[in-house]
Amino acid sequence: MIKSKKETFKAVMLLMPSIILLSVFIYGFIGWTLRVSVSNWRGVIPDYTFVGFKNYVRVFKSVRFQTDLWNTLYFTIFLLSGCVAAALFLAFTLDRRVKGENLFRTIFLFPIALSLVVTGVVWRWMLNPEIGINVLIHKIGFEGFRFGWYTQPLRILKFNVPLLSVLIAAGWQLTGYIMAMFLAAVRGIPQELRDAWTIDGATEGKAFIRVVIPMIQPVILSGAILLMHMSLKLFTLVYNMTGPGPAFATDVPALNMYETTFSANRFGEGAVISIVLLFLVALVIVPYLYSARKADHS
């Protein structure tokens, strides 16, 4: 019993620095942000005068923030569906042991090695209407092609078309990483099972859809959660590639929070956007962690 108490004490003392740092720099700052979000802090000098939910009302009535939420919704839907579909296709193709697999795998994984800053700058240049892909399209004979990419404020329903440029850049960078997750899961399927569906006469495509995909469903879910998490926190790519765009066509909540807080010095409203982002991320992550923990204990 004494030995057990000593071991418990040592474990607690060993974890204490991490617990203190976590309490201060995570939960402490979350609490401080909540306090700022209900304060009248608008300017360089802090003002903690309590104003209730006035900042929340002001933010949610803002046209920019409403646009941000629609942009985030569409961005998440298209990034998630596009990346997962493309990653599954690439994983299926590479799993067939195609010639030059190592080269293709390296090419597909290369974008994830780049920082989002580099990706944003490169794609900003490539999609520039005056010097980018448009020029290449004109040179191959389509001189009448005109598309503003991220410079033209065009809308289809609630979808801002310039957001497509950011989707292309994000999909280019993330698809290879998700593909690697799926390919590792597919390669983990026992050879006996592969032989069984071959004997049963199932084609590779049909077996992949009806057998492989259900078997790697947990990995697909993990990849989807990762993509949703990254789309909700999107900042660096947009900041370096397009900024808010024309009529906030490529704006996202994180960029709005940054400019509201540090450019406009409206700290109360910036804190509100931070809390909303925290809530959205928690809405995605917490149920996943809960289900994963429940599965581990079952």
Descriptive labels:
298 residues, mainly alpha, MetI-like fold, 72% helix, 1% strand
> What structural class do helix, strand and pairing data support?
mainly alpha
Distance linking N and C termini: 30 Å
Give the percentage of residues in beta strands: under 5%
Strand order of the largest sheet: 1-2
Looking at the structure, what is the overall shape?
A: flat
- Topology order in helix (H) and strand (E) letters: HHHHHHEEHHHHHHH
> How many alpha or pi helices?
13
Low-confidence stretches: none
Query: How many individual β-strands?
Result: 2
**Quick one: CATH class of one domain?**
Mainly Alpha
Which CATH architecture of one domain?
Orthogonal Bundle
CATH superfamily of one domain: MetI-like
Largest sheet: 2 strands, antiparallel
Mean of pLDDT: 87
Compute the CA-based radius of gyration.
Answer: 24 Å
What is the strand and helix layout of this fold?
Layout: H1 2-37, H2 54-61, H3 63-95, H4 101-109, H5 116-126, H6 133-139, E1 155-156, E2 159-160, H7 163-187, H8 191-199, H9 204-215, H10 217-232, H11 236-241, H12 253-263, H13 267-297
Antiparallel strand pairs: 1-2
Helix pairs in contact: 1-13, 2-13, 3-7, 3-10, 4-7, 5-7, 7-10, 10-13, 12-13
Task: Describe the fold and architecture.
- This protein is mainly alpha-helical.
- The protein has a domain at 63-265: Orthogonal Bundle (MetI-like fold).
- 72% of the residues lie in helices and 1% in strands.
- It has helices at residues 2-37, 54-61, 63-95, 101-109, 116-126, 133-139, 163-187, 191-199, 204-215, 217-232, 236-241, 253-263, 267-297, and strands at 155-156, 159-160.
- Strands 1-2 form a two-stranded antiparallel ribbon.
- The longest helix has 36 residues, at 2-37.
- The radius of gyration is 24 Å and the shape is flat.
